[in-house]
Amino acid sequence: MNYGKSRLFALAAAHGASLLAVPAVLQAQATSGQLEEVVVTARQREENIQDVPVTITAFTATEIRNAGIARPEDFIALTPGVSVVHTAEAGDMQVSIRGINTGRDVEPNFALVVDGVLQTNPNALNQELANVTQIEVLKGPQGALYGRNAVAGAFIVTTRKPGEELEAEVRAGYGTQNSYDASLYVGGPISGSVRGSIGAYTRSTDGFYDNSFLGCDDCVDTFSEDGFNGRLLFDVGGGEMDFKARYSQIDSGAINFNASLALVDAAAAFNNPSFYANPNNQNFVYINNIKASNEQENLNLSLRGDWDVSFATLSGYISYNDQQNYFLTDGTSAAFGLYNFNSVCQASNDQIVASRFPLPSPFFAAPSSLWGTPAAPLGSFLPPYSPTTCDGYQYQERNQSDTSIEVRLTSPGDEALRWVGGLYYAYIDRDVVVSQGSDLNQGLSARAFVPTSGRNPTDLLYDDTFKTNVYSVFGQLAYDVVENVELALALRYDSEQRDVDNNVKTCNSSTPTGCRAQTPLFAFGSNPYINPAYTATPSYATDGIPDRSKTFSELQPKLSANWAVDEDISLFASYGFGFRSGGFNSSGSEATINQYFGNLFYSPGVRNISDVKDDYKSETSEAAEIGMKSILLDRHLQVNLAAFYTNVEDLQYFNFFVGPFGLLRVVTNIDEVTIQGIEADFHWNVTDSVSLYGGYSYIDSEIDQYNGRPYTKGNKVPYAPEYTGNLGVEWLYPMTASLKLLARLDATFVGETWFSPVQDETLPNLFTGFGFGNGDFSRQKRDAYSALNLRLGVEGENWTATAWGRNVGDEDYLQEIIPAPEFGGSFIHQSPGDSYGVEVTYRF
Question: What pTM value is reported for the model?
Answer without folding.
Answer: 0.92
